[in-house]
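Dear U.,

Please find below the material for section 3 of the report. The protein was modelled together with zinc ion; I have listed the sequence and SMILES used, followed by the predicted complex structure.
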Amino acid sequence: MSVFHRLIGQEKVVALLKQSSLNKRSGVESGHAWLFTGPPGSGRTIAARAFAASLVCTGEEPGCGTCTECQQVMNETHADVEYVRTDGVSIAIEDVRDVVSRAYIRPSSAQYRIIIIEDADRMPERTTNVLLKAIEEPPQSTIWILCTPSTEDVLPTIYSRCRHVQLGVPSTEDVSRHLIDSFQIDADHAHVVARVSNNHIGRARGLAGDKFAWDYRQKILRASFAVHNICDAVFMSSFIMNSLKDAENADRMNSLGAEKNEGSDEEKLIDFKRSLGIGEGERVPAVLRKQVKDFEEELKRKATRRIRDALERIMLDMIALYRDVIFVHMSLGDGLINVDFDEDIHRISTFIPADEALRRIDIIFDARERLARNCAPQLVMEAMWAQLCV
Ligand SMILES: [Zn+2]
């Protein structure tokens, strides 16, 4: 099966990427720096990986999916295709420096060395500048692929040096069909999941494939119709914060699935110490203290990002809810995102007019901004829910 089969509803992009790979094969220059943009869930990273596979593919048709190269890229084990990604809030400057220095090394087996920067929007300006020169005057055999939600997320100096590929939002029908094929769920449920995910493929896959994620979303939305006073607001935020303390819950909320998590942070720390020869409960020798401290900090950073992403997920669901209220007022009832809460949305629309729904969306945006500014999540949640009483 072609490496492009996981790109749902992006026929034009697939055609362009296949053609570019063919051009490269026949020596036609088709760009050494690419910028893949598209809203969350449109499949930016999947597209970048598939394109990388088709560039190094040795099969008859680029991106055949069956040759060793294609398979290695798709399993992320190909030596000449590397990723810059972060579990933290932003991409570290050292990581970009490292990858820039490797960009000047010739590929080991393929014709190209391909570097994919996922979430390039998480690169602070100073970090981006490190990258600029490598993109401006790239070594012949290196190809950069940057992924961001939109072109505004990278500096104009980067944008102007990249070939731009814009991914669109796949249709509900495309997403439903994909869910039915992948999870063998019935057509009605697949349609509901596609709608409530707002056609976000990753979110849809998470909700269709993991009952916890589905139940948790329902729990949050159901509870949000029952927050009547400050007491309820405090209870609600405590419930959310407590449930996200569990790393597995937070990962599943982020649609990463439980399998991505390899145990609690305490267990990871014990494993790490063991790998350094330090038994459980033993004192850390002075010479290893820095390594252990760095590892602990890394775990803390990941936990912060995990919780922040999960809260972001909840807030996006809340925004969709009030967007639906506005839709009801505009008599566009059949365009609801949260089709499974149709009745509740119509009920609260009787006492939440459109301008009030809009004000509530602003409140949620404010909360997102405060989280991005590193305010304490529990307090941000409490303040937000207190203003969203119904
Ligand atoms: Zn291949």
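For the text of the report, you could mention the following: Confidence is low (pLDDT under 50) at residues 257-261.

Regards,
Y.
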